[in-house]
């Protein structure tokens, strides 16, 4: 399958195999800086998808999103919410590690957007949790103050589809600012509840219907 902005295309920019990008050379800087393409992990029919920014060094080495310090914090918050990492899908806006862990550029985000669109369309989750500023602004398509907007539910458009998103601070924010820890953990618990999964859930559908 060839992917071009989420639709079958023929520009040779990349190939997808199911939910995974197998080859892509659209971003010259990232082709240089990556060791591998880091695809999303987790059930192909997950009700909850966590969306990060881009792989860092650990993710690039292991080929899996959120396996470094941020990943441990995410795992802790999931556990508190009654979820295992394997219950949810975890993916990134950009699938290749940017040099020196810089933020992905608008162009790089745009180049990878179609792959994300396909992944979300196929998984069709109840809720997508945007982890931090870059994924939140990428999906909401506006500037987002994540610390004040954390916990807000918004409908977002990606390709042909509308998805329900929950804004969250990035797990790494809890490392620099202890007060963000409570916000992060509460947001993840809320995500589990809204998606109808996890220990505190009462089915979720009714609560999501309120938004
Ligand atoms: N931060 C992200 O945004 N994504 C990862 O995969 C790891 C850390």
What descriptors fit this protein?
single chain; 211 residues; alpha/beta; Uracil-DNA Glycosylase, subunit E; 5-stranded mixed sheet; two-stranded antiparallel ribbon; 9 strands; 19% strand; binds uracil
Overview of the molecule:
- By secondary structure, this protein is of the alpha/beta class.
- The protein has one domain: 3-Layer(aba) Sandwich (Uracil-DNA Glycosylase, subunit E), CATH 3.40.470.
- The protein contains 9 helices and 9 strands.
- The protein has helices at 28-33, 57-62, 69-80, 106-123, 133-140, 146-149, 173-176, 179-195, 205-208, and strands at residues 3-4, 7-8, 14-17, 20-24, 48-52, 89-92, 127-131, 153-158, 161-168.
- The longest helix is centred in the middle third of the chain and has 18 residues, at 106-123.
- The radius of gyration is 16 Å and the shape is globular.
- The N and C termini lie far apart (36 Å).
- Residues 52-56, 59, 65-66, 70, 92 line the site of uracil (URA).
């Amino acid at each position: 399958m060839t992917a071009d902005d989420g639709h079958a295309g023929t520009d040779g920019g990349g190939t997808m195999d199911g939910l995974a990008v197998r080859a892509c050379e659209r971003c010259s800087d990232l082709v240089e800086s990556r060791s591998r393409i880091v695809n999303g992990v987790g059930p192909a029919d997950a009700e909850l998808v966590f969306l990060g920014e881009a792989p860092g060094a650990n993710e690039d080495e292991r080929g899996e999103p959120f396996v470094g310090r941020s990943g441990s914090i995410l795992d802790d918050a999931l556990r508190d919410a009654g979820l295992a990492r394997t219950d949810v899908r975890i993916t990134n806006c950009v699938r290749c590690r940017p040099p020196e862990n810089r933020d992905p550029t608008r162009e790089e985000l745009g180049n990878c957007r179609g792959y994300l669109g396909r992944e979300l369309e196929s998984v069709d989750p109840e809720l997508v949790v945007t982890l931090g500023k870059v994924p939140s602004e990428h999906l909401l398509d506006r500037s987002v103050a994540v610390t004040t907007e954390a916990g807000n539910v918004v409908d977002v458009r990606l390709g042909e589809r509308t998805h329900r998103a929950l804004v969250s601070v990035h797990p790494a924010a809890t490392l620099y600012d202890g007060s963000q820890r409570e916000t992060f953990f509460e947001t993840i618990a809320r995500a589990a509840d809204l998606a109808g999964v996890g220990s505190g859930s009462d089915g979720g559908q009714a609560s999501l219907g309120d938004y």
